[in-house]
Write a structure and sequence with these properties.
Blueprint lengths: L14 E15 L5 E9 L2 E7 L4 H8 L3 E11 L2 E12 L17 H13 L4 H12 L1 H9 L13 H19 L5 H10 L4 H4 E2 L5 E2 L1 H5 L2 H15 L5 H13 L15 H24 L24
Parallel strand pairs: 3-5
Antiparallel strand pairs: 1-2, 1-4, 2-3, 4-5, 6-7
């Protein structure tokens, strides 16, 4: 983000006059009863907390429904991490925003990733699973959404094309496991790898701020993906019910545990493998993101990370 005070470039003592997206906002009072604001701002490079002392009630009301803010602030240190101390903030209309400022992008060869995905589908030995996956991507609107969608809102692959990148990575790990461990149904595991997060195209919204849709909050991508398989399998001639059930099970169980959002715990060998390789890719990506976007002032450690529940080592 040229000519901008990107959050990842801020240092203690910097004077900032910049536009950021408001991620979180809470009102507080000092022991003397004076109001102040705490919150979090973000851009494509990361997030940073802020405090605004001596803010009036009218200023607080103005910010309650804000999405983008131009802030005047100084960069300070608070509990081993950077913080903005605001002295001014005003709302900014979305029409004045360049989406590039707020949508993280990666240097990805999207065409090569897409070709690899199509080749994986074409290589499936199971005619029924191959036909189902081809039907999934035969819908141009559905395929285009999958090509552009992020894989998450904050924790991993939270950028344009992130879902495609994550999916291809998981299919590669699936292929590796099939080479290493005997007895795995390659067609089932690869199909599950391709479809495990597919319904994030319905769960997430990414044309503006990355967020969850109403359907995403009410249904979620695990159940949504299983519903898609149910519908498309019913449209294909003689699709085996047991194959359909197994594929749905992989989608419904790939979070591993009920406490982590799984609708079912893994009961098939392929389901166990899919959960582990999905977790592996998302955790590695989450670690790299946490290190890259850290605003900690400690040169060796990030701030406490939500995905891992601890600080992460980023030193040499």
């Amino acid at each position: 983000m040229p000519d901008r005070h990107a959050i990842s470039s801020l240092a203690v003592g910097d004077q900032v006059d910049e536009i950021y997206r408001l991620k979180h906002l809470v009102s507080r009072q000092t022991p003397q009863g004076k109001g102040f604001l705490l919150g979090e701002l973000e851009d494509a490079s990361g997030r940073i907390g802020f405090v605004w002392w001596q803010v009036s009630e009218s200023q607080q009301r103005q910010l309650q429904d804000a999405c983008y803010l131009r802030v005047g602030a100084k960069v300070d240190r608070h509990r081993d991490r950077l913080q903005l101390v605001l002295h001014r903030a005003e709302t900014v209309a979305e029409a004045a925003i360049d989406p590039v400022w707020f949508h993280p992008a990666q240097d990805l060869d999207v065409a090569a990733l897409w070709q690899e995905l199509e080749e994986r589908i074409a290589s499936l030995a199971d005619d029924h699973l191959r036909a189902l996956l081809q039907a999934v991507f035969a819908d141009p609107q559905r395929a285009e959404a999958f090509r552009h969608a992020p894989a998450g809102v904050t924790l991993h692959h939270a950028y344009t094309h992130g879902l495609l990148e994550h999916t291809v990575a998981v299919t590669r790990l699936a292929e590796d496991c099939c080479q290493r461990y005997a007895g795995l149904d390659r067609s089932l595991l690869v199909a599950g790898a391709i479809l495990h997060d597919f319904d994030k195209v319905s769960e997430l919204a990414w044309t503006g701020q990355l967020s969850y849709t109403v359907r995403g909050n009410l249904v979620g991508h695990l159940v949504g993906g299983a519903i898609l398989v149910e519908r498309l399998a019913a449209e294909l001639p003689d699709f085996p019910a047991r194959t359909r059930d197994k594929l749905q099970h992989l989608i419904l169980s790939h979070h591993g545990e009920l406490a982590h959002g799984a609708a079912r715990e893994p009961l098939l060998k392929e389901a166990v493998v899919l959960h582990l390789i999905d977790n592996l890719d998302s955790r590695i990506a989450g670690f790299e993101q946490a290190v890259a976007q850290s605003t900690s002032t400690d040169p060796d450690w990030t701030e406490p990370n939500r995905m891992f529940g601890r600080r992460l080592y980023r030193g040499e």
